[in-house]
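Researcher: Here's a chain I'd like modeled. Treat it as a single chain, no partners, no ligands.
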Amino acid sequence: MNVSKTFENLTPSYLFAEVAARVAAYKAQHSESKVISLGIGDVTLPLIPPVVEALKSAAEEMGTREGFRGYGPEQGYSFLRGAVANYYAGKGVSLKEEEIFISDGAKSDLGNLLDIFPRGITALIPDPVYPAYVDANIMSGNKLAYAKALPENGFLPMPDAAVKADVIYICSPNNPTGAAYDMRGLKAWVDYALNTGALIVYDAAYERFISDKTLPTTIFSVPDAKYCAVEVCSLSKMAGFTGLRCGWTVVPEQLQSGVVNAAWLRRQCVKFNGVPYIVQRAAQAVFTPEGLLAADKNLAYYKENACIIANALKEKGVRYFGGENSPYIWMECGMPSWEYFDKLLNTAQVVGTPGAGFGAGGEGFFRLTAFNSRENTLEAAERIKKM
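Model: Modeled as a single isolated chain. Structure tokens:
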């Protein structure tokens, strides 16, 4: 049995695997050096107290005959789906529990959604953007079109009537550029999708980082978006669940009169056994007033880290983007981005992510993240300034 030929079209190594390999090779030769990572977007602060208490309580509950639970519903327990629905109600968006599907994180669903669509469709993807969108579509044998995100358009490309696509990926705030659409921009994409029959896959994983209250935090703030969009979100960055794994996808019943919702439910029932009960109880705790307050305190810590990095670049006259409504700093590096990666690692012992790994449009740029400790962020900023 041969592996699908679509895998031959992938780049030789996934971006973050290549970064890890280069860092490991450097550390093997320079064991005495302290390497500081501002690269992969993994959180560093511990889980918030309400989540820890919920984990303990649920684990103890599972240790009793009365409280033990086996297989749960593939689409998630009602208590968590209800909590997510209430969260959206706070944004002025009404959702049914049946439209919310609990997942083990945004990354899984962003790729798995392709299961319910025909092979060979055309996916319109921003360039640069999170590389998993591209790789998932290549694996599925789909065709790719790109919406160029440039400094000239604020890294927020708008629809082009000449481009036809079946699926449109939008990430706002964007990874890696940090750019976030306003209502006008999102409405333009919704109108485009409604006019062309395309489906928007909206990645809202970083919505909780939005500080500007005039910016939408869900695509469903746009009228009629329920007729053309699904929204994927995650607790990974919002509440530090990178190790626990929990997120959700909203599939409105208005999409093709419920056909898409039914197809996704069937897919999940066939290929997914659901998120563990104790993790869902922990996730439920995030959506309590105490949970959101504690989660936002952690996000404020990361936002301050972003300011530290941004101020260091500003002091040295380096042009950068992001860092205000996002944990990412997108800086111009003045040379091929992998070359800058090696220079930064060897000269300052700081790790970032080459822009070229996010698409051709990322060449000449470099991503730094705000997820390390305050102490390490301050030290990394000083090292970068000395380069």
